[in-house]
Amino acid sequence: MTSDEDLLTFAGNPIEYFGHSRLAMHTLAPRRLAELQLAALKLRFAALRDRIPILRTLAEEQGIDEIRSLDDAAPLLFPHTVYKSYPARLLVDNRFDRLTTWLSRLVTVDLSGLDTTGCASIDGWLDLIDASTELRLAHSSGTTGTMSFIPHSAVEYDRLYEIVRLDVIPDRDPEGVDVVWPSFRSGRSGIARHATAMAEQIAGHPDRFHTLHPGLLSADVMFLAGRLRAAAARGELDRVEISPAMRQRRAEFEDALHATGRGMGEFVERLADTLRGRRVASLSTWDVFHGMAGAGAARGLRELFAPDSVVFPGGGSKAGVLPDDWARGVAGFFGVPQLQLVYAMVEVISLNLLCENAGYHLEPWLIFYLLDPGTGLPLPRTGTRTGRAAFLDLTAEIHWGGFVSGDEVTVTWDPCPCGRTTPRLGTRIGRFGGTRGDDKITCAATTEALGEALEFLNGALV
């Protein structure tokens, strides 16, 4: 019998539960893992059901008072639209008081005393939440004309990167390693939130955190770019409203565009001057790494870092147009024998690693659901099957971790030839469409978004 205390450690602090061992995390007997997940799920549901208004409402509508099996929680998995279910005008009108009220229905954190009076931008609102609460919201790229805001906590990111350290610094060297971050130094998008965690947990010192741009990836400019695309699709570009505050930030966005575009060549040259031959760690999307390797190749830069460097590409390709050998080019630029590909999404806190048998092994604190695309019902947890991916993240302590993704995946439940026993996803991952559009959270389109926003701002100022 596992105690409630042990179950909460398994769910909330897995690195401690598994004794700082990656092997232990992925070699539990499948039946034992399912037992642990169910017991921890029961505790999470009991603790959060009446503290998160939207979860309570959904549970009441479904008549769910307790969890008896893993599949009992399937009707409680949130659709992605939950995280952007506020009135769209709130961001345009800077009604951050009402946006905060909306957010309070998704979390256990008391936001009633948060004074948003001085907030004149999304960035300002996110600043306030970061400074005043334990929440760390991660926003989407806003490609459908609005933004999703996914709640996590500072503790969740800290604990994730304690685990990532096992892959990057297996000897638990307190000094850390140099981190190459080919993007903005800070931000609150899905991937930008990882920058802060990597700087603190992997680099350990500001001098070991090397970024393409020293500033902030602005949520406001990403939102503007998303609105422009949505308006253009409707033929209503001339109706997009721009606040005076956004116009005043044009110089900031011009600088950011230079860094993310032409600045990539300057960045790789700087890395060659300062980090050549050293061991580094890096995380980004396929597209960004491919562009980085291309900038290096144009300058004759190859095998830039030590071969025991760790490179984490994730997020796929923005449009699926990368060459088949993109990974070989990135590995050649960094000088590593292979890349450590990850399957990740901002809605759940984990980096699920690809094994040598081409399977993304899901971390044991993620309860995985494969849903029938037609009915939405969970498919059996046996064999190899294809459907819609859904997850319940047991590490979520201040929000409900259940989430239905837009990913079409193939899962294999049987133990892997690599020796791991956790369920694994195949590398062919597609996307399901939706009536409200696909607002997949990514940083791959940052340069394009900046360019579109600036083009519009410049035209609006003529």
Q: In what range is the share of β-strand residues?
A: 15-25%
- What value does the average pLDDT take? 88
What structural category do the secondary elements indicate? alpha+beta
Shape: globular
Number of helices: 17
**Relative helix content:** 25-40%
Low-confidence stretches: 434-445
Number of domains: 2
Task: Report the end-to-end length measured between terminal Cα atoms.
Answer: 71 Å
Radius of gyration: 22 Å
What profile does the largest beta sheet have? Answer: 6 strands, antiparallel
Number of strands: 14
Describe this structure in words.
The chain is α+β, with helices and mostly antiparallel strands. It has two domains: 1-76 and 350-440, Luciferase, Domain 3 (Luciferase, domain 3); 87-95 and 108-344 and 441-461, no CATH class. The chain contains 17 helices and 14 strands. The chain has helices at residues 4-12, 14-17, 22-25, 30-48, 53-62, 89-92, 96-104, 122-132, 154-168, 192-203, 219-234, 244-248, 250-260, 263-275, 286-298, 326-334, 446-461; strands at 138-139, 149-150, 178-187, 209-217, 280-285, 310-314, 342-343, 352-353, 360-361, 366-371, 384-393, 402-412, 424-425, 430-431. Helix 10 (192-203) links the parallel strand 3 and strand 4 (209-217). Helix 9 packs across helix 10. The longest helix is centred in the N-terminal third of the chain and has 19 residues, at 30-48. The model is unreliable at 434-445 (pLDDT under 50).
